[in-house]
Amino acid sequence: MSMATPTAKHGAQSQTARSQAAQSKREPSRSEQYASSKGLNGTPGKMPSVHCMLAPLEDEALLLPTQVVSEVVEYQQPEPITATPEWFLGQIEWENRHIPVFSYSALIQGTAPAAIKNRNRIMVVKSLSESARVSYLGFLVSDIPKLVTVLPEQLTNTGDENKSLGVFCHVLVDGQYAVIPDLERLTHLVTHVAYGALPITQVK
What's the pLDDT score for residue 9? Predict the structure, then answer.
């Protein structure tokens, strides 16, 4: 029976330790890098203030920098796509593109989408992804978003205990609860659900 030398054992242990350390270090997504650079993750960022859109959802609000919001349009009935989950509403035509539209509230809460009302809007947002198929996302919002100027010190990161899919973090902005979405992972998810173009395992 062969015996490993102390040197070989030490080398194997060092290699295992390095492998475990590498696995524990996950590269931040583009959404995480973007939010951190703007101070939108509850920690001070590089900019003293950020112009944001605060869009009402069913139970809280959606907070996004204005740079990623392309347009807010009147609600129109999306064209449905078969065999998709309930939170995915379909797609609309916008600027000669097909934009996937979904209820973000229903997705992160695991509930059925609320009934459409007269004040509902669709907020067209840049996906921050390299996806050629889905370069924009359509968020169903409850009303017209409002423009707010956010200072990093105004944000308190409330975490995400449910580890909801497509959520970067929940924040408290001047006493109002809001959620910052993970646009990159949302794009992977929506692309997979609507077009079957990406494996679901890429969304973690």
Answer: 47
Q: Average per-residue pLDDT in the chain? A: 79
What is the C-alpha separation between 109 and 103, in angstroms, rounded? 10
Asked whether residue 195 carries a pLDDT value surpassing 70, the answer given is yes
CA dihedral (64, 58, 142, 168) in degrees, to 10, reads 20
- Taking the C-alpha atoms of residue 51 and residue 105, their distance in angstroms, rounded to an integer, is 23
Is domain 28-202 annotated with CATH 2.60.120.650? no
Residue with tokens 């920690």: 43
Is 119:72 a contact under the CB 8 Å cutoff?
no
- Per-domain residue ranges of the chain: 28-202
Reported as a single tens digit per residue, the pLDDT across 101-153 is 999 999 988 899 999 999 999 999 998 776 667 899 999 999 999 999 988 88
Other beta carbons within 10 Å of 168: 24
Burial pattern 98-123, b for ≥16 Cβ within 10 A else e, equals bbbbbbbbbbbbeeebeeeeeebbbb
Structure tokens of 68?
Answer: 């990623």
